[in-house]
Amino acid sequence: MSLDEKFIPVRTFLYEMVGNTFKKIAGFFGYPTNPGMPTISDLPSEAYARSRFLDNLPRHRTFWPPIQRPETWFEMIFGPSPKVEAVPRYIYESKEEGFYNFYIENYKNIYFLPDWLSKFIQVKLHICLDITLLETIREVLFVGLMVYSQIVILRIALSWFIYINPYTFPWCYLAAAVDWTEDVLQGIVPSILGVNITGSVFLGILGVVADSLNHLVFTMPFLPSEGEETKLLINQEMKDVLVFHYLPVLWYRFPIPNEIREFWYSERPDILDYMQKAYKDLDIQFLPDKIVQQLIIDQLSQN
């Protein structure tokens, strides 16, 4: 008989003793007849159904490091620059819904600007249909955060080389660009085994902020709250989408930007005709200002 076989009775006795001990302790709490606390599924509610819907949504996946897709010889040698992997907007036109409709796939980790900020950008800054400037700003912020994260990585790596004084030229510029983060986080983030991890924590914060720009969706000329949740058949698969269609609410509450009305009048009379017929019951000015002024002058001259 081997040594392992001799210890089998001891092992069995130990298992049974531990099991009986737990059963006796559980008996004080009504085991095995106590059914326990009711699960949340026994308490259906609108908020619970909403949370289940959001949990079942897919995630907008991004990759870090970014997928390498070099397009020039320079990018083949030095690598491509980081680019925003934004949620695509699918624009469509229809006779029922108009010309400025679009939809996006609904994800659990997408972000929108607040309604008040989107309203300010469209009404005060007149950024309505052409969102190139907003996308450029997002791209610049993303690239800037990625470049700064590489500077932080270089500063962390430099601290491990004890024979390099980071406060001498040219390393002093690198230290000045990063060391301020230690002054901010040193009293919040503790050291682990005597190692300062503020740089690593700050690097993680940079990564989260930069990645959130990938999931930011601009909804101009609509407000983010105007999105309607529905399902569409995309590539032979039913997917949850957010649809922005019909007349943007800001075009009803505020005058439509004059440059858009001039574009309709001079280059897209079909859009102007649709707007005038579809929303004739609303008090909205679809003609450009110069045409309205000319009509007023003609009417006064006739009188």
Secondary structure elements and their pairing?
Elements (H helix, E strand, L loop, with lengths): L2 H4 L1 H20 L18 H11 L16 H6 L11 E5 L3 E8 L5 E2 L2 H9 L8 H28 L11 H8 L1 H6 L12 H17 L1 E2 L10 E7 L2 E8 L4 H5 L4 H9 L2 H10 L10 H14 L1
> β content, as a range?
5-15%
- Which class best fits the helix and strand makeup? alpha+beta
Low-confidence stretches: none
Alpha plus pi helix count: 13
Summarize the structure.
With 303 residues, the protein is of the alpha+beta class. Helix content is 49%, strand content 11%.
Explain how this protein is built.
- The protein is of the alpha+beta class and 303 residues long.
- Among the domains are: 73-217, no CATH class; 255-303, no CATH class.
- Helices cover 49% and strands 11% of the residues.
- The protein contains 13 helices and six strands.
- A four-stranded antiparallel beta sheet has the order 1-2-6-5.
- The longest helix is centred in the middle third of the chain and has 28 residues, at 132-159.
- The radius of gyration is 31 Å and the shape is extended.
